[in-house]
Specification:
Elements (H helix, E strand, L loop, with lengths): L1 H16 L1 H19 L1 H5 L6 H14 L28 H15 L1 H11 L3 H17 L5 H11 L15 H15 L4 H18 L4 H17 L4 H22 L14 H20 L4 H22 L12 H6 L15 H24 L6 H17 L7 H23 L5 H20 L15 H11 L2 H5 L8 E3 L5 H7 L3 E2 L8 H12 L2 H10 L4 E4 L4 H9 L4 H6 L7 E3 L9 E5 L5
Parallel strand pairs: 1-2, 1-3
Antiparallel strand pairs: 3-5, 4-5
Helix pairs in contact: 2-7, 2-8, 4-5, 4-22, 5-6, 7-8, 7-9, 7-18, 8-18, 9-10, 9-11, 9-18, 10-11, 10-12, 11-12, 11-14, 11-17, 12-13, 13-14, 16-17, 16-18, 16-19, 17-18, 18-19, 23-24
Keywords: Membrane, Transmembrane, Transmembrane helix
Organism: Sphingomonas trueperi
Protein name: AcrB/AcrD/AcrF family protein
């Protein structure tokens, strides 16, 4: 028995002293599992999301010599000068680096595939490290394995952001969020403030998707200072690193297009807000009045100045940050599923997300009560506020789900760590182990909604299976490659098919789902929902040589609903005008292709 106890203590010490090493070992295991599971997708370069496809095109352009600050995509609507993309080069760097590293050994094509497979897994290591740090600081130095298990088992919207080929920016922003919560939980004020400030600046330099989370993190640090003047160093360093980091991010990565006064990226608009906010926070901490009510009043005044300045100087940003027209919003942007609140999603999608977020908040509140007489109280109050905010964000947009589930992990870990010992304080060892295992299984089953009676209430819509099959078939690499038999040209096709078309084939497209190019998106919608006579002038303006359709793809349902007798609906019924010349495709092709004959041809 003594030998077993000694071994147990040695294992406990190993997990404490070398937690980072073991966290990276766990990350390596997840990486291997992902790569084995997705090796077929990697081989076929199955980039399922339009943004992932466009990200690869940005990397290809960079490696081909396109300017560092030039992020226009010139193969999208080339007749009108290309597409303005509002991203930054930050996320391009690891993908490009992996391609250059692998290319001498496996060739360009294979290097590109494996770079796209490996790149999304890099920020997963940072995310796992951030969660382990948070749990070590707030729950127990030995509880971090629970957090890692929860991340890979119950975070059904978070983990897919790190899957191979998910090369867009979401994984990196979630990694920054994980480090943000670790900084909030850090008992060392200056270090914690620096981590939160730098993580926020990094995330915002990539994109504004997590701007509300970054703002909430700053508000939490300000509240900590209001409550306790000893938090001065945390808030001061946060203000310095937020403003300075954002300025560096803008100087190093803001594209030519993002140097205009736009509202949808780190442009001079948001840079000025972040620098001003950082400067005001530093000024507050330099004053650092002793009275709590004075600190609260100064914080409120500082917040009011930021809001008033934003309203005065940037009134154009008070509406939709995308600054799209009402027509484009109604026609396209309002149909983006992730922009809808959680209650407008099917139960089998919404319930698992809500359960994880709810369990995380419940666990954080329980941890606050449990830590009410300890030094961890303030940290848990901060994390509970952050978790509650993330859960509330789901009522605005479902795109907050990955962040909400990520922030729920510390709370669920605390829930397990606190309750399981209470349930198994007495009883034989096998009972205690059984209860612990059941706790994990129970959280996993409930969170994933597996076989839960409420999780499958939404009946499939008529034709949904046909739409799903079309979405898969028309983006398949093997099918798209058949189009390369046709000389390179600009093809007029659906908006959502455009990015995939230019990745796999040598053809150009007219439009893709990117809001800064709203007129091209509207042109496609007008062409397909208008009359047949109205199509050719629109196609001619974009110098399209061919009309490519994927019948029944999800986007086509919008065309039909907006005008059941429009041009697309007529084509779907086989009513083809004589100025469209059919182009033969291989048997089994999911496409319909016509050469467009213009007047005089």
């Amino acid at each position: 028995m003594t030998a077993n106890i000694q071994r147990l203590f040695r294992l406990r010490d190993e997990f404490d002293r070398h937690w980072l090493l073991w966290t990276l070992v766990a990350w390596a295991c997840v990486t291997v599992w992902f790569l084995v599971q997705r090796q077929g997708n990697i081989y076929w370069l199955t980039l399922g999301d339009t943004d992932d496809n466009m990200r690869l095109m940005q990397v290809r352009a960079l490696l081909a010599g396109q300017g560092w600050y030039d992020l226009r995509q010139y193969r999208m609507d080339p007749a009108l000068g290309g597409f303005d993309i509002h991203w930054s080069r930050i996320v391009d760097l690891p993908i490009a680096g992996l391609i250059l590293l692998l290319k001498p050994f496996v060739g360009m094509a294979t290097a590109e595939k494996w770079a796209c497979g490996l790149a999304p897994l890099l920020p997963l290591s940072i995310t796992m490290t951030g969660l382990a740090l948070t749990v070590r600081r707030l729950v127990s130095p030995f509880a971090w394995p629970i957090a890692l298990v929860l991340l890979v088992s119950v975070c059904t919207t978070t983990l897919p952001m790190y899957a191979p080929l998910r090369i867009d920016h979401h994984g990196w922003q979630l990694a920054a969020l994980a480090m943000t919560v670790a900084g909030i939980a850090d008992p060392k004020g200056a270090r914690g403030g620096a981590v939160v400030g730098l993580a926020s600046a990094f995330s915002l330099s990539i994109g504004l998707e997590l701007l509300p989370f970054c703002a909430m993190a700053g508000a939490i640090l300000a509240l900590r200072w209001v409550w306790d003047a000893a938090e001065r160093a945390r808030l001061m360093v946060y203000g310095l690193t937020l403003g300075g980091g954002s300025a560096i991010g803008f100087a190093a990565f803001a594209s030519y297009a993002n140097q205009a006064m736009r509202c949808d990226a780190l442009t001079p608009v948001w840079l000025s807000v972040l620098v001003a906010a950082g400067a005001l926070l530093v000024a507050l901490t330099l004053a650092n009045p002793a009275a709590r009510w004075v600190r609260l009043a100064l914080a409120v005044v500082a917040g009011g100045l930021i809001v008033a300045g934003f309203v005065h100087f940037f009134p154009q940003c008070l509406g939709r940050p995308e600054q799209v027209s009402d027509e484009l919003y109604k026609t396209w942007l309002s149909n983006v599923r992730e922009a809808r609140p959680i209650y407008r999603h099917p139960a089998d999608v919404a319930v698992p997300v809500a359960i994880v977020a709810g369990l995380g908040l419940l666990g954080a509140l329980l941890a606050v009560w449990h830590a009410r007489r300890s030094a961890k109280l303030v940290g848990w109050v901060a994390v509970a506020l952050f978790t509650a905010f993330a859960a509330a964000m789901l009522l605005w947009q479902m795109r907050a789900a990955p962040g909400a589930q990520l922030l729920a992990v510390p709370g669920i870990t605390a829930l397990i760590w606190i309750l399981v010992p209470l349930l198994v304080r007495r009883g034989p060892l096998w009972v205690r182990i059984g209860v612990a295992v059941l706790a994990f299984v129970g959280v996993g089953v409930v969170a994933s909604g597996v076989k839960m009676p409420w999780a499958n209430k939404t009946a499939p819509r008529p034709g949904s299976d046909k739409v799903r099959q079309a979405n898969i078939a028309c983006t398949r690499t093997s099918q798209l490659r058949t189009l390369n038999a046709i000389p390179a040209a600009t093809m007029f096709t659906q908006v959502d098919l455009g990015p995939r078309l230019i990745v796999v084939t040598h053809h150009n497209a007219v439009a893709g789902p990117y809001h800064r190019n709203g007129q091209a998106i509207l042109d496609v919608h007008h062409a397909f929902t208008g009359t047949a006579d109205g199509f050719r002038p629109i196609a001619a303006r974009h110098k399209a040589a061919y009309l490519l359709l994927c019948p029944n793809m999800a986007e086509t349902t919008v065309y039909r609903s907006h005008n059941p007798v429009g041009f697309y609906a007529q084509l779907a019924k086989g009513r083809v005008p004589d100025w469209l010349e059919p182009v033969a495709l291989p048997d089994g092709s999911p496409y319909k292709l016509w050469k467009i004959r213009y007047q005089g041809q």
